[in-house]
Amino acid sequence: MAKLVLHQLKKIYAKKDEKVYAVKNLNLDCSDGEFVALLGPSGCGKSTTLRMIAGLEEITEGDILIGGRKVNDLHPKDRNIGLAFENYAMYPPLSVYDNISFNLRAGGVQKKEIKQRINKIAELLDIQDLLDFKPGMLSGGQKQRVNIARALIREPEVLLLDEPLSHLDGKVRQKMRTEIKHLHTEINSTTIIVTHDQLEAMALADRIAIIKEGELQQFGTPYEVFNHPQNEFVAGFIGEPPMNIMEVLTIRNKGRLFFKTKNNVISFPVPDNYVQYVRENETYHFGIRPTDISVVEGEDFSVETNVSIFENLGEECRVHIRLEEQTMFSIVSSELLNLKQGDPVKLKFEQHRIHIFHPSSGERIENVLQEV
User: Fold this and answer.
1) Which residues, 6 or more positions from 227, have their beta carbon under 8 angstroms from its beta carbon?
2) What gap in Å lies between CA 58 and CA 60, rounded to an integer?
3) In CATH, 244-371 is 2.40.50.140
């Protein structure tokens, strides 16, 4: 177990006459025993970051420290890390036991100690009955357990997991996710997981580093990135289904500020907590999560409109409404209503759950004004 620090980390690839930044000035401070997810779309630089930590990718600039020790120039085997790839990469002719023990035997560890370590790891990962099997006899979930066992057998200070669940189907993936979380509590090793699946990151990690085009967008707990996204990208990337985001204009009517959409399709008062941040006749991006929009009756509502699509999914219902070129939807309990296309509906926005972003920078409007 060790603290992991990334300081001003850069990775630049030379492409003809230009420089391509895969990672830009990345700073992360991961505590001892913390589970951190590197999350972002394909090509954002998260796997490159993991490979630099592992020593498989050369660092262009910056520093990597493990347990207070700078490891930039250390060989991968000297960094005391464990690495499990998305591809299992096992030796087909060898048994599971021999696959797990391979690196220990190559390092000159005594057979007795190897056996003790393997028995401990096998019990932890529930693969005791698989030790005599060949890789070709294993299911995807079993192969991934063996893959993780090979990474843990070295008793690493930092465990690196590169998309470990990407090849698994839905049910196996969910089961393995639970097992990885349980495993982390048992070994208490500093763990970094790379994933493009935000549900996976939210379920597993203590904190999530959200990356876009090589740049860190936000580093926080699942609660923080979900409830207090720092910018529009984070707001739209985190959450399933994603946050409703639409363009609004601020107008004044009878002394009060209102947000309205194009062509005045809908109009609603600016929440009290945003009155000090927005300006009249300025355009903003308004965001609210589907779970923060309720279907109501009576006079206390934000928007009165018509149902575009109604989906009953059993545990929940989704009410879609069409706003010019985009759709906004609400998630409500399936016991509350049964609507059909064209029905009139009143929607209420939870005022304290509204997010306002700057239209050009995408930053939260509060942060933009604080910087000014």
Assistant:
1) none
2) 6
3) yes
* Tokens 């007795």 found at: 112
Angstrom distance (rounded) from CA 163 to CA 194:
5
Asked whether 114 and 105 are in contact (CB, 8 A), the reply is yes
Angle at 312 (CA atoms; ends 238, 330), nearest 5 degrees: 45
Tens digits of per-residue pLDDT, 282-337? 999 999 999 999 888 888 888 888 899 998 888 888 899 887 677 888 988 766 66
Give 19-76 pLDDT, tens digit per residue.
889 999 999 999 999 999 999 999 999 999 999 999 999 999 999 999 999 999 999 9
CA torsion 240-24-221-183 (nearest 10°) is 90
β-strand pairing of 81-84 with 158-162: parallel
> The domain 4-237 belongs to what CATH superfamily?
P-loop containing nucleotide triphosphate hydrolases (3.40.50.300)
Angle made by CA atoms 365, 265, 267, in degrees to the nearest 5: 50
Segments in 129-229 forming alpha helices (H): 140-152, 170-187, 198-204, 222-227
Pairing of strands 190-195, 158-162: parallel
Domains 4-237 and 244-371 share a fold: no
From the CB of residue 216, how many other CB atoms can be counted at a distance below 10 Å? 21
Nearest to 86 by CA among 148, 137, 42: 148
Q: Can you tell me the distance from the alpha carbon of 176 to that of 33, in angstroms, rounded to the nearest whole number?
A: 20
Q: Which residue, 275, 272, 247, 278, is CA-closest to 365?
A: 278
Does residue 33 contact residue 82 with C-beta atoms inside 8 Å? no
